[in-house]
Amino acid sequence: MEQEKAPLYEAVSKYIKRKMIPFHMPGHSQGKGAPRILKKLFGEKFFDFDLTEVSGLDYLHYAQGVIREAENLASKLYGTESTIFLINGTTAGVHAMILDSVKENEKIIIGRNSHRSVIGGILLARAKPVFVEPEFNEEFGIITNLTVEEIEKAIKENPDAKVLLVTTPNYYGLQGRVKDIIDLGHKYGLRVLIDEAHGAHFPFNEKFPKSAIYLGADLVTQSAHKTLPTLTQTSFLHIPSKSVNVDRVEQVLSIIESSSPSYIFMTALDVARREMALHGKEMWDRAIEVAEYAREKISALQGFKVITEKIVNGIDIYAFDPIKLTINVEDLGYSGFEFEHFLNKNGIEIELADLQNVLLFITVGTSKRDIDILLSVLRKVQPKKEKNKIKMERTPKAPPFAMMPFETLKKDFEVIPLKEAKGRVSWGIVAPYPPGIPVLAPGMVIDDDCIDFIDEVFKYGGLVQGSVRQGSEIAIRVVKGV
Ligand SMILES: Cc1ncc(COP(=O)(O)O)c(C=O)c1O
Question: In sequence order, what E strands does 231-286 have?
Fold first, then answer.
């Protein structure tokens, strides 16, 4: 079977066996010069694999040999026209999709729930963002997805927009009406880009939502590293559609990504693809079973609530990804941030906390035993006497832009207390992290709602990227003199 092959892994392994004398990058010379602590930490073999583009191992940005073979196998598995390996995460995929699709000063319609990489891509492309407000689930206090109606309104109000970029599923595994959204964009002649960072596993089990790859999207990017058994920073850019010129996309990627791609990363992608092709279905069956077990047991505990399939409403939530385990701790009186701290102290590391919830990822590596340990920690929780009355608010509506994001790059900034920032223009991206959804993008006029929202997240222990800590207060960077 073709998918049994792992061309890149095989080629690198064969190369290592030749025991070549290295007179090339990287500077550790296949481990011979590597610091001892690193050798101890990673093992000798690790450095053997950390090759550069040596003879016979192809070039990521001019792939014609084993890297192309590996990408072609990924493309066949995912059922795309082309699939390209990314070594700078989905951030690179998002940047490439935008840079390939929108020209300077052109409008791109995006969700207010977009990841910071979308703002970064728009800044690089010198494009104009038009925001669509997503829906909000009051029960769990989480942003969900864009609706077809809101997107259509934005398209009608901006008939000169050329591109629609939609982020779905969200971090919590809630997917919007992707097919209808893609069809809508195409009806109005827009190119449709999908940030499916959290959906690289979707094709491998029928219980997962359907990937946008099969629903007509022009370009789809996925963080392989978020859910598949591969290494951090490894992602895919999928080109499902013949309407996209692959050469152009590759040209963009060769500009924005490193010219020294890690063979450890690329080999990891090759092997993870093989793993999914051969064993994906059973692996995910097991992971889903573990997640269902966790949901059943946790929801039976006093004070805990979990997101289940029942959250699907067919409007802003069309499908639920069962490997995402969202635990709501509101009734126990804790904020999600406080609860994360408690879990951490008890040896449990989670993916994300917000004001009301903690989010745990179940992967092909999670066992029922892990869940049992989690349960034993959860059983220790004492409800707080003084209840946390804080409810997550929806991200405030996008304030207007005083200047386009790219224009701020040419401006100086000054740091001022957040509380004094009303009416000033944000210089940076200000985003609670995770999930990395910017409350402020460069060029936005800061309003009271944004100030209150950021202050709230900060006050309750959330990390706000792009802010500056000044003792117990929070400050931000604003454009100087504006
Ligand atoms: C929705 C979304 N898009 C894009 C990204 C960026 O992905 P990466 O970390 O692979 O660069 C993330 C990361 O969290 C994300 O959540």
Answer: 235-239
Q: Indicate if 211 and 73 belong to the same structural domain.
A: yes
Q: Given this model, what pLDDT does residue 263 score?
A: 97
Shortest-distance Cα residue to atom 7 of ligand 1: 90
Give the pLDDT of residue 386: 77
Q: What is the DSSP letter of 417?
A: E
Residue 257 Cβ < 6 Å to ligand 1: no
Instruction: Let me know if residue 434 belongs to a domain.
Output: yes
The reported pLDDT for the residue numbered 262 is 96
Nearest CA to ligand 1 atom 9: 89
CATH code, 435: 3.90.100.10
What are the residue ranges in the chain where pLDDT is below 70? 388-390, 434
pLDDT of residue 389: 67
In a domain, 471, yes or no: yes
Is there a single domain that holds both residue 107 and residue 223? yes
Residues 171, 252: one domain?
A: yes
> Beta-strand (E) ranges in 121-195?
128-132, 136-137, 142-143, 163-167, 174-175, 191-195
Confidence (pLDDT) at 52: 87
Count of Cβ atoms closer than 10 Å to residue 332 Cβ: 21
Phi, psi of 281 (to 5 degrees): -55, -50
DSSP string, 198-238: T-TTGGG-TTSPPPGGGGT-SEEEE-HHHHSSS-TT-EEEE
The 10s digit of each residue's pLDDT in 234-255 is: 999 999 988 899 999 999 999 9
CB of 94 closer than 6 angstroms to any ligand 1 atom: yes
Cβ–Cβ < 8 Å for 336, 358: yes
Residues 215 and 345 in one domain: no
Distance CA(316)–CA(426), nearest Å, equals 30
Number of domains in the chain: 3
pLDDT number for residue 196: 98
Predicted local distance difference test score (pLDDT) of residue 470: 85
Domain contains 383:
no
Beta carbon of 115 within 6 Å of any ligand 1 atom: yes
The reply to whether ligand 1 has any atom less than 6 angstroms from the CB of 195 is: yes
What is the 253 CA–ligand 1 centroid distance (Å)?
A: 17
Residues 197 and 338 in one domain: no
Asked if the structure places residue 388 within a domain, the reply is no
237 and 342, same domain (yes or no): no
- Kindly state whether residues 66 and 210 are assigned to the same domain: yes
Residue numbers of the domain that contains 160: 61-257
